[in-house]
Amino acid sequence: MNHIARESSVQRGMVALFDVLGYKNLIDQNNVATVASLLRETLQQIPAAVSQWFKKEFPENTAVDEIVSAVKPLVFSDTILLTLNEDAATDTKAGNLFVFFVECAFVQRFMFENGLPLRGAISYGEFYVSDLCFVGKPVVRAYELAQSQDWCGVALTVEAENAWIALQDKSWLHRSASIVIPYDVPLKSMGTSRLISLQWPAIPVENKGFPNDPRGAVVEKFSAHGKIVPPAEYRRIENTARFFSHCRPKALQSANVLHELMQHRPLKEQPSEEATGDNAIVASPSKSSMNP
Fold this sequence. Notes:
two-stranded antiparallel ribbon, Alpha-Beta Plaits, 41% helix, seven-stranded mixed β-sheet, 20% strand
């Protein structure tokens, strides 16, 4: 059996990595079939919801279904991985990335709405994904950034910011102001970092408006499915509720946000990578070390 990935199998594009927060608690309080159904049924709703949103908001974008179908999901335990080969669809590269960000925001919003809050990050670069493993610097970068955050949210790494900004013209930035925003992302180190983040709370959910009590909504989702919220989660809840309030509908689609998106540039590169072989995260029976 050949265990070496052929060079032709390596892709370049966006990688999003999400962890289900409170996963151990969720497993302890529910049977395996219930958790599996929650994950599967929620993720199955996403492609159609993204397509419907685009047809309403941007009817001129006729390639959206092809791009959505090119986004490849992979779920293992508490980890959800989405990838998009930047050359996989026929729209412009900027259009491909925008649809990818929208799909990631929908994943974040729908999982939250179903009581499965996520913490994630998006990176960019060369990667290899198969049924057995996912390998590449963007996987590692997304994992590192996701683990450093202290909220239910998703931010872009330096590599993803550079790739996104390099492709933009003003028209695409104007569209993206409803999805990607600069925000002081709360970190486990108790500080914050100004990063481009997905404005996922503003994603519409059928038959549900924006919550009048964001904190109450966040507490409800963090404690859904019988989960017991430990004191260590309180700060994460407050940080998420604060972001929810920040993302009240339409409030961020303003000239100020557009201006900051146009001016925003990563201030420094990611730390240089240590010599750690192929930087592979390989499926294994236990992944507790990847979820605090």
